[in-house]
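Q: Convert this sequence to structure tokens.
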Amino acid sequence: MATTKGAIILEFPCFIHKARNSAIVKYLLFRLLLALTARLPLSLLHGVARSLGWLLMRLPNRAASTTLCNVQTCFPDLDHASARNLARASLQNSLCSLLEMGRAWLWPLPRTINLLRESEGVEAFRRAAESGNGVILLAPHLGNWEIFGISMSYGIPSHFMYLPPNQPGFDRLLRQSRARGGLRMAAAGKAGVAKLLRALRGGELIGMLPDQVPVDGSGTFALFFDQPAYTMTLACKLAQRPGVRVFCGYARRLPGGAGFRGIMRELNLRRDNLDESVAAMNQAIEELVRECPEQYQWEYKRFRRQPDGEEFYLA
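A:
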């Protein structure tokens, strides 16, 4: 049945009201999830994540199809059963990261940081970050990057780049939780880049997720697991500044809900050619991912932009 222009005008405020109410409900449910998971043992949460991940691999859904597509692309030598097993483990670990957010966002910071039971290369990173010469921290979608970023920046003047959520409530909660230890956020864009540059010039620590697909004009194609991936150039450009050091790492989930191992590696991204620097960054990330591919977020559409403009993912 046709709808008149007047009816559309009358119904529009109602539509906006419903949309706002829906956003509020989602926010409240998320806060409830954070509060609940912050109280439950890690071993129990990981058990729930394993069950949900097993279920996801048996039902038609975008997360499972994208994960399996990425795994089959990046590990072409795996047979179908092995690829499905890795995809299922990746989904389970992504769900673990979601259920661990209560610890990352609501726990007192010393208690959150204490979840890092083991470390590798972290002391060298902290000495560099406290030197006042400026350090770039790259935290790919591997392990628990929330707990990793919070822990690595604790007590150190820091700015991290991020993509603000669409809902103001979620954005406010994210910024407040990360700011507890003095970590300041810089929204992706020109203003955010300017903040990072000022912080680096001031000898601070700056951080970013290097495996997010950047906006048009701020990236270049570089191989990641032998597949062209549109990759940010910002980190590599900033790494050319004199005295700046670059580290890349992650918080690796330990078995049995025992906590995490903080792993940090120093990178040399100084190259005469920007494309070579970006390629070196992707290669370093790939090496970390190969250490525990099941803890990488293969659900992310890393290859959605292709040099020929063709669609990479079916859904």
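Confidence is low (pLDDT under 50) at residues 1-9.
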